[in-house]
Amino acid sequence: MEILKKYNSVLQDSLADAIAIEEPHQLYDPIKYILALGGKRIRPALTLMTCDFFGKDFKTAINAALAIELFHNFSLIHDDIMDNAPIRRGKKTVHEKWDVNTAILSGDAMLILAYQFFENYEPKIFQELARLFSRTALQVCEGQQHDMDFETRDNVTMTEYIHMIDHKTAVLLGAAMKMGAIVAEARDIDKNKIYEFGRNLGIAFQLQDDYLDVFGNPETFGKQVGGDIISNKKTILYLMAIQKGTVAEAEELEHLFSINPKNPEDKIATVREIFLSSGAAQATRTEIEKYSVKAFALLQEIDITEERKTMFRNFGNSLMQRNV
Ligand code: GRG
């Protein structure tokens, strides 16, 4: 993302040096491997950007940024084991390249390494970062468990779904930004507003991910369009369609989400039709808009210059337009 470029080049160097330990190779090689696969590095760049915008040299936030990226990558390794996923960032997942036990242990080591980066801060900042980080990590765990529970439930409410994506994904974006504000020693009220900005934008982003999975352009989406339909994942579109559609539409959807045809093209096309005819597609767009508007309204209230607010707004817009 253009706006994050300045931070990404500093991050690139720091990440390459972050894991200096070599032995045992079986423990540290997978960590170096997943970090070298890249990814968009949105979260650590946000930590640096937020620190910068609250008026402190963004390099002072590098340790917090490294912690958040290590944590994110650790959660991806464990998530891929749970999902039995073969590919991550276009390459073999850690448990495929090595094995499941190696992936578990390397992931665990990454979580500890993430906390160690906080030791570079003086006690007051250290405590604030660690407290936020622990709370956030626990919420991510809770979000993951809810997501797993939802797979076998057929009565998930919209509120429960939003709560799940908030915890599984959005709180980490909020925390990434708040950490930058903590290192910059911003006012408590502003720390909380920037946290809520990141969190609401994170919810909007995840809902948009659900939407693009069905209606996205295959050239620009970056993932297989229809992937959630193929794997029978009950996203917001499914929940909205069950809630808003006719009895016949709901029954057909329930049936389609219980089968796994060899050629999924017809299934994808029918589900897409029902999402449109039931009003679920429109209702999802309204929901995305609601959380984006909320995020931008919070930004307006923060005590930083108009120029910096515009930069945050541009970041939010480019995240939602997927120019990442
Ligand atoms: C917190 C102790 C503890 C355990 C973790 C495995 C797990 C429990 C949680 C899973 C969390 C998870 C993988 C959430 C998905 C978040 C998400 C949107 C990932 C994709 O992020 P991008 O697009 O990826 O930023 P890149 O590859 O660009 O970094």
UniProtKB/TrEMBL annotation:
Its EC number is 2.5.1.-. It comes from the Bacteria. Keywords: Magnesium, Metal-binding, Transferase. SUPFAM superfamilies: Terpenoid synthases. It is an enzyme of class 2 (transferase). InterPro entries: Isoprenoid_synthase_dom_sf, Polyprenyl_synt, Polyprenyl_synt_CS. Pfam families: polyprenyl_synt. GO terms for molecular function: transferase activity. This is Polyprenyl synthetase family protein. CDD domains: Trans_IPPS_HT. It comes from Aequorivita aurantiaca. Belongs to the FPP/GGPP synthase family. Its cofactor is Mg(2+).
